[in-house]
C-alpha cells in the first residue's frame, strides 16, 4: 500500500462518510490490524464513535474483523481494506452500467445497495418502487413485481450476490448476535468466508411482496432534506429476513474488461492478437487470450500517456523500445529517424521520469565505460505500476479541488438549496406563477451566474475523475492478470 493510495482512500472516506470515519479508516490502513481499544487510544477518539465508525466501515465492506492473534479469548481485531475503499471511486460507473443493462429500475437497485452497503430484497424493492412512484405522473405507481423482476435479473447475471451468513462470520455465535451481517459483535475466524463460498450465493428467496410503490408527500421530502426524519420502510414480514444482498464488484469488473477488449478489437481488426488457436482436433479451438489483451490495452495506455506528456517523437521512441526491447542510443536514433541531440534529450527525459530504464552490459569485469554496452529498454509492468500511482495522485488532487470549490461557495450553495426546497413545496401546493417568480428572484443575477460557473466546474472535475478511473481500472486489471499468470 503506497502513500498515494492511503491519501486517496482518506479523501474518499471523508467525502462519503465524514471526518470521524476517515480518521479511523486511515489509521487502520496505516497501522494494520488492531483491536477496538488500541484504535480508540491511538486516534484519541471516544470509544462510542470508534464503534460507530467501525460499523459504517464493516457495513460497506471496507473493514474486516476477526478473532485476535493471541488466540481464543483475545479482543476482536479489525483490518481496513484499501482495495475496497478505492471501489467507492467507481460507484458512478457501476450505477451507469446497471442503468444501461436494466434501465432505471436496475440503476436505482444498484444505487440503493451501494449507498447502504447491503440490503434485504424486500426492503430494496419497496424503497426503489417508492422512488420510481414519486417521479411518476400523479395517479400512476410502480408495481412491486416489476422491481422484483429487475432485481431477479441482476441476481441471475451475478451483478448482485448474497452476503455471507452471520453464523459463519463468528466463531461462537450467541443469542446476542445481531441479525445484520457485518456488525462487529462476535469474534470471527481469521479467514471469513467469501460470498462465493456460500452455495446459495445466487439463490433468490421466496418473497411475498404484493402492492405498489407509495408517493412521498412534499413535507416528507423537506424533512428528509433537513435530516429531521428518515425514510421509513414497512416492517411487515416478507419471508427474507436475515438474507442480505450486496453488489458483486468482480462481476462488474468482468463486464468492464470484456467491453474494453471488444472495443479494442473493433478498432483494430487488422491485429487479432487477442484471439488465438488452441489445438488442431476438429479444426482447432479458438480462445480469447485475456492476459495478452489486457497487456496490449495497458501498452496502448502507456503510449498515449507518453505522447500527451512528452510529444509524438518521444512516443515514437517509447513505442520503438517496447517493440525492440533493447536498443543502444545510436540504434534508437537510426530506427526512430530522429537527430542525435533530440533523441538523447528525449531518452534522458524519459529516463528521469522512470518510463525508460537503462541496462548496463559490461564486456569485462572492471565495468569500464568504454567496454560496456548501454541499452535502453521499457519494462511494461513496473511502468504500469508507476502510472497507476500517478493516477491515484491525480484522482486525489481532483477530489481535493472539488472539496475546496464546494467549501469556498458553501453559503451560496446552501442558499440555492433552500430556495429550491421552497419552490418544490410551493409547486406541490399549487402556488401562483407570481409567487414562484418572486421566490426565484431571491437569487440575484450575479449569484446565478456564479452558481452556473461553479456547477460547470464541478461537473468537469467529476467527469475527469471518472475518465481517470477508467485508466485505473485498466491498469489494475493488467497488473492483476500478471499476478494470476
From TrEMBL:
Q: Which organism is it from?
A: Salmo salar (Atlantic salmon)
Q: Which residues form the RNA polymerase III Rpc82 C -terminal domain?
A: 150-271
Q: Which residues form the signal peptide?
A: none
Note the subunit structure.
Answer: Component of the RNA polymerase III (Pol III) complex consisting of 17 subunits.
The similarity annotation says: Belongs to the eukaryotic RPC3/POLR3C RNA polymerase subunit family.
Specify the protein name: DNA-directed RNA polymerase III subunit RPC3
Taxonomic lineage of this organism?
Eukaryota, Metazoa, Chordata, Craniata, Vertebrata
- Residue spans of biased composition, Basic and acidic residues class: 218-235
- Name its cellular compartments: Nucleus
User: What does it do?
Assistant: DNA-dependent RNA polymerase catalyzes the transcription of DNA into RNA using the four ribonucleoside triphosphates as substrates. Specific core component of RNA polymerase III which synthesizes small RNAs, such as 5S rRNA and tRNAs.
Q: In which domain of life is the source organism classified?
A: Eukaryota
Keywords (A to Z) from UniProt = DNA-directed RNA polymerase, Nucleus, Transcription
- Entry-linked PANTHER family: DNA-DIRECTED RNA POLYMERASE III SUBUNIT RPC3, RNA POLYMERASE III DNA DIRECTED -RELATED
Report biased composition (Low complexity) as residue ranges: 171-195
Family matches, as InterPro entries? POLR3C_WHD (IPR055207), RNA_pol_III_RPC82-rel_HTH (IPR013197), RNA_pol_III_Rpc82_C (IPR008806), RPC3 (IPR039748), WH-like_DNA-bd_sf (IPR036388)
Q: Which gene encodes it?
A: LOC106605815
Disordered: annotated segments: 171-235
Q: Which stretches make up the RNA polymerase III subunit RPC82-related helix-turn-helix domain?
A: 8-66
- Main subcellular location: nucleus
Residues of the DNA-directed RNA polymerase III subunit RPC3 winged-helix domain: 302-378
